Amino acid sequence: MNEYQKSAADKARAFLTELERVVEVDSSFKRVLVSMRPSIDKIIHGEESLPTKILDGWDIYFLPRDNFMEVLNVYPDLVNRNIELTGLLRHTDMESYLKWRKYLESCSCYMPQA
């Protein structure tokens, strides 16, 4: 593995760790973990070397939401900047995340996932 691949693997490991931690707190993320795990594993094992494969779009997919536009109403700058691998959670702690989640759930537009 070259340095670029190692960097991507490190970011993917960090993302996976964070995602597993969130699943323990909020089981609605389990389907996200299951669907993303194969791609994350490919990056960790050096089969995929481009960090953009996990940077582009995954941060938004990772956020708790049912409707993309509804989340943008709460957190509009998501669409205007290039967010790091773990998205919102990279910039906050679990307590702040849970407060944000509670706020989102209190919005009239929010509908819980099945």
Write up this protein.
The chain is an all-alpha fold. It has one domain. 59% of the residues lie in helices and 0% in strands. It has six helices and no strands. The longest helix has 23 residues. It is elongated. The N and C termini lie far apart (41 Å). The C terminus is likely disordered.
| Succession of helices and strands | HHHHHH
Quickly count the domains.
1
Low-confidence stretches: 50-72, 74-92, 108-114
Give the helix tally. Answer: 6
| Ends apart, CA distance between termini | 41 Å
Number of strands: 0
Q: What is the alpha-carbon Rg in Å? A: 14 Å
Arithmetic mean pLDDT: 58
Largest sheet: none
Percent strand: under 5%
The rough form would be described as elongated
**What level of helicity do the residues show?**
55-70%
Give me the secondary-structure category: mainly alpha
Layout of SSEs?
Elements: H1 3-25, H2 30-44, H3 52-55, H4 58-62, H5 68-74, H6 94-106
